[in-house]
Amino acid sequence: MKKLLLIAAMAALALGASADGYKIEQVWNLQNPQAVTGMDRMEIRQGFGMNGKFYVNCKKIVVDTIDGVPTVTTAPVIYEIDQNGLTGVTFPGGKNCGIGRDEAGNIVVSMTQFPNSWSEGLRVINPETGNYIELDIPEDAAIMGRCDFLGFAKGNLMEDGEIWLNGSTQGTSISHIAVAGGEVDPDNCYYMVGNGIVTTTCLTIMPYTDINGEDALLYWARNGNPEKLLYTDNQYTATALLLQNRANTNGMFPLVWDGKEFFIYSTIEGTTHYYDGFAIAESGGEPIVNVPKTSTSVNGFQSQWLNAEVDEDGVTIYQYFPGNDYGHFTVWRLTKDEPTPEYPPVYILGEVNDQSWAPNAGTLMDYDAENNVYTATVTLDGRGENNENYFSFTTELANDNDEGGWAYIDQFRFGAVSEGDFWYSDPMAEWPLELTDENGQAFRAEAGEYELTLDKENMKLYIKKVGQTMLRGDVNGDGTVNITDVTILINAVMSENFNNIYMRNADLDDSGIHNITDVTMLITAVMSN
């Protein structure tokens, strides 16, 4: 019986936010890769994902058992798998389980029978058309190593591209295979000695462009420390990658995203390798996410395969964990929360809410993130000679007056644009009121309860008396909107003399200025009545 476990649309496992706002969620999961195909047994030890699907190469299949003897087909097949199982799309496979892709999305499989050296070349398949080509490896191109697995390739191997294979297992070489015009280009195939490279079996080489825009190779083996290779002075030079809790398991992937160079790699569970837990980290850094193991058993293939696709909203990660009952295909989504914009606190200084002037005392305004403004409701008690109160603003207060008092907070203060203290004569003042952090003056207002709205970004202050109703278009403040208001506003705009009119009522389009647009809107309003 086929055993499927489908977990859809990130609903099953949300691991939550991690360091610096990174988070990873499971998109879907399909258990038991062998049972998915309906076969009794498959040899599918490597796989990768792209465009929401997985691709695995089955190098042989047990089709039936007759009199206790399994009948085996030697015709390899590549399966395409999505969250519902087999899609029904297959391609002629390779003789080994090694499978990868190039940057154009073509599938690449090994045609060399394990455990031989890379003698029979590669097959490159276009998954859209099913067309494929065979790439033979020139005998003098390299001292080839064992054909265990495949990394990805650069470019388009159906046309022009390049792929790297493990070189001699007794040396420090890397084999480079070049393709031009859809054929192997012998003149540009070579093996290259590396500085500091430790060549071994079960080796995979993954080309990528690093954080500095340099062509690099991620070079790793199951039981060796992974290395980053850069080509300088006619050779590859290796730098060891330091990844916390890394397991001795086949399968890694480089990821340049969010302005950083990460690596996706398998992790140790306790002291045991070959589970399906993984992490993402910069070399030498703390992991940004850790995904704990979900399998109940270790992987006898000593591998799991991880690759990723980056888009403008995040990263899709494909995880193929070979195995029987405990194996799975899983898609993950790595994202990062948009950082909360930092905004300075704003305090109201002065005579509000029974508060007196002091460098270490102020009324903290609320921040409205949606509108990017600060708000506060304050009471002015009319303690001044003319029944008025004074106030201004600061972004920082002195601490118990031990930081220099007023001299300390002067650099953080801002207030009215005025030659002296600005008298707010509600509601005939300019609207909105201008603010400045250069020699800002205090505002004066008569006793009452006020709603203050501060646009710090544009240095504007809006004042409204609590309970006050403003009649838009009532330019002269007589409680009605009529032709008299039109005449007054026309005269004010033409003369640019706005004294003795209700500025806020006259700003019909809320632009902060008074011009012919306001006149036109007012005429329309009067005519429509």
Strand content: 35-45%
* Class based on secondary structure composition and strand pairing: mainly beta
**Residue-averaged pLDDT, rounded?**
85
The total tally of domains equals: 3
Question: Any idea of the CATH class of the largest domain?
Answer: Mainly Beta
Which second-level CATH architecture of the largest domain applies?
6 Propeller
Helix content: under 10%
What's the N-to-C terminus distance?
78 Å
The beta-strand count equals 39
Question: How does this structure look, described?
Answer:
This protein is mostly beta strands and 529 residues long. The strands form seven sheets. Strands 29, 30, 31, 32, 33, 34, 35, 36, 37, 38 and 39 form an eleven-stranded mixed β-sheet that branches. Strands 13, 14, 15, 16, 17, 18, 19, 20 and 21 form a nine-stranded mixed β-sheet that branches. A five-stranded antiparallel β-sheet has the order 1-2-28-27-26. The N terminus is likely disordered. The chain is elongated and about 105 Å long. It folds into three domains: 292 residues, Neuraminidase; 119 residues, Immunoglobulin-like, CATH 2.60.40; 46 residues, no CATH class.
Summarize the structure.
The protein is mainly beta and 529 residues long.
Feature tags:
Neuraminidase, 39 strands, mainly beta, 3 domains, eleven-stranded mixed β-sheet, elongated, 7% helix, 5 helices
List the helices and strands and how they pair.
Elements: E1 14-17, E2 22-31, H1 33-36, E3 47-50, E4 53-58, E5 61-66, E6 69-73, E7 77-82, E8 85-92, E9 99-101, E10 107-110, E11 122-125, E12 132-135, E13 154-156, E14 160-166, E15 173-180, E16 183-184, E17 190-195, E18 203-209, E19 215-221, E20 227-232, E21 235-240, E22 252-257, E23 260-266, E24 278-282, E25 289-291, E26 305-311, E27 314-321, E28 328-336, E29 347-350, E30 363-364, E31 366-368, E32 373-380, E33 388-394, H2 406-409, E34 413-416, E35 422-424, E36 433-436, E37 443-446, E38 448-455, E39 460-465, H3 483-495, H4 503-506, H5 516-528
Parallel strand pairs: 17-21, 35-37
Antiparallel strand pairs: 1-2, 2-28, 3-4, 4-7, 5-6, 7-8, 9-10, 10-11, 11-12, 13-14, 14-15, 15-16, 15-17, 18-19, 19-20, 20-21, 22-23, 23-24, 24-25, 26-27, 27-28, 29-30, 29-33, 31-32, 32-38, 33-34, 33-37, 34-36, 36-39, 38-39
